[in-house]
Amino acid sequence: MSDHKTMTLTLIVWRQKNANDPGKFETYTAKNITEHHSFLEMLDCVNEDLIHSGKDPIVFDHDCREGICGMCSQVINGAPHGGQDRTTVCQLHMRKFKDGDTIYIEPWRARAFPIIRDLIVDRSALDKIIQAGGYTSCHTGGVADGNAILIPKPVADEAMDAAECVGCGACVAGCPNGAAMLFTGAKVSQLALLPQGKAEAAERVMNMSNAMTECGFGNCTNHYECQAACPKGINVKFIARMNREFLKAQFA
Amino acid sequence: MQLFSTSIGRKILMAITGQCIVLFAVIHLLGNSSIFGWLPGGINAYAHHLHSLPSPIIWGFRLGLLAFVCIHIWFGIQLTMENRGGRPRQYAVKYTQKASFASENMIWTGSLLLLFIVYHLLHFTIQVISPETAALTHPDVLGNPNVLGMVVAAFQNVGVTLIYAGAMVVLFLHLSHGIQSFFQTMGWSNDRIQPFITKAGTLVALVMFLGYAAVPLTILVRILK
Asked: Are B43 and B147 in contact (CB under 8 A)?
């Protein structure tokens, strides 16, 4: 690695002790960063320096570091997950930055996501939406035969496209209104598309969209920032599908 | 029906009332175009025909339109206020990828349009702003209200023309986001047709702008007299 040039970056990071603390930006210097570091590895380096100098490390969420779990959640220079197409923070690499860059790092900001500490927010509001209807009711028992219910391939594919959502909340963080329509739209759609989910479709869309409002999420005004922010590329067509399901539910 | 209380329901009401107002604006534009002479007797005859409709039809139409406008404004303000709190603190760096100036300023373009509509009604419907050229009190030689004379007198003034043309720029912005939003909100959209709907919506908004702005501008440069 010695033949690689290293970068020095200025980080302006949101620090907040708990939900009641007003919080503020602190400036740090990240030294000896190579282009091969992931963004989270870069923060690990900064945290090691902070720990060695007796300071509190920057607290952030992460888990798989493979871009599939949806745990990491940082807004980098105003863009959820850093603004690289279909990329989570953990898969964002420092080759996207230049020596001397100044980088703003903030938590997801939404009324429905209270800050727990620094860059960690409480995303349990998304779980409440799932609890309101993100399931199908079925009898337990023997495993049903895989092909007992025939589902056309395009329909299965579209349901799978919606099911790609990892529930990271970037759509909410990117939405100027703090709305969870893309998340909820994806969850409503993945079930409404399939025969097993159709039975409860009307109930589901009403319960999940009501839960969305109760949790403090804003309303959709069709900016489509959610789609741009989504690391899984969930399309706003699923919001249109949820709106359609909502209208159908009015006449069900 | 939970249209008046839920998030998606109110969004659908915004879409339907907005689209009805757009349809009215299209009819209004077709009426305006009679000023260019395709109708015998021009816009004066058109105004006469319109005013000769039975009054229940005229007032039913007016009150219906007023109801749509009121619903659109009421929920527009309510939803905007709710959404302002959706993100309690803005990010240090503003970064948007898909939101546009038009989509971010619907409440302001809408407010400007409301002001314009009030002015326009006082000007050309109730006709109290320039009573000396009011069409209702100054019939033409055929006995029709002299709308042409009223409009020409108004738009020979640069200031009035600028107000109207400026308002039509605002209308363009409002509709360029609003028309495609209608289809998305009604669920009549998907990834294949959405780019087309967005372009078609902007095109309709542009046609409306050009059509409406044509009257004051052609009068100002004395093409239409």
From this structure: yes
Which residues of A fall within a CB distance of 8 Å from B188? 240, 244
Distance separating alpha carbons of residues B13 and A221, to the nearest angstrom: 13
pLDDT in tens, B203-221: 999 999 999 999 999 999 9
Question: Residues 6 or more apart from A25 whose CB is under 8 A from it?
Answer: A12, A13, A14, A15, A104, B92
* Containing structural domain, residue A90: 7-106
Q: Cβ–Cβ of A209/B8 closer than 8 Å?
A: yes
Would you say residue A128 lies in a domain? yes
Q: Are strands A79-80 and A75-76 parallel, antiparallel or unpaired?
A: antiparallel
Asked if A104's CB is within 8 angstroms of B92's CB, the reply is yes
Look at residue A114 and tell me if it is in a domain.
no
Distance from CA of A100 to the nearest CA of B (A): 18
Q: In what order do the strands lie in the sheet with A79-80?
A: A24-33, A7-15, A102-106, A75-76, A79-80
Instruction: Please write the tens of the pLDDT for every residue from B152-188.
Output: 999 999 999 999 999 999 999 999 999 999 999 999 9
Residues A91, A127 within the same domain: no
| B12 in reach of chain A (CB within 8 A) | yes
Q: CA of A76, closest CA in chain B: separation in Å?
A: 9
Does B2 contact chain A (CB < 8 Å)? yes
**Complex prediction ipTM:** 0.94
Which whole-number Å values give the CA distances from A60 to A36, A39, A89, A252, B90, in the listed order? 20, 12, 11, 44, 20
**Cα torsion A238, A243, A244, A246: sign:** positive
Distance from CA of A184 to the nearest CA of B (A): 12
- Domain B7-220: which CATH class? mainly alpha
Best of A224, A227, A245, A248 to substitute, by most chain B Cβ atoms within 10 angstroms, is A224
CA B18 to chain CA centroid, nearest Å: 10
Query: Is B52's Cβ below 8 Å from some Cβ in A?
Result: no
A111 found inside a domain: no
Contact B205, B171 (CB under 8 A): yes
Whether A179 sits inside 8 A of B99 (CB atoms) is: no
Task: Write down the H helix ranges in chain A.
Answer: 39-52, 124-131, 153-163, 170-174, 181-192, 195-198, 201-214, 225-229, 237-250
Residues of chain B with pLDDT under 70: 1
Any idea where the domains of chain B sit in the sequence?
Answer: 7-220
> Which CATH number does the domain housing residue A127 bear?
1.10.1060.10
Domain count for chain A, please give it: 2
Answer yes or no: is A239 within a domain: yes
How far is the C-alpha of B129 from the C-alpha of B151, rounded, in Å? 12
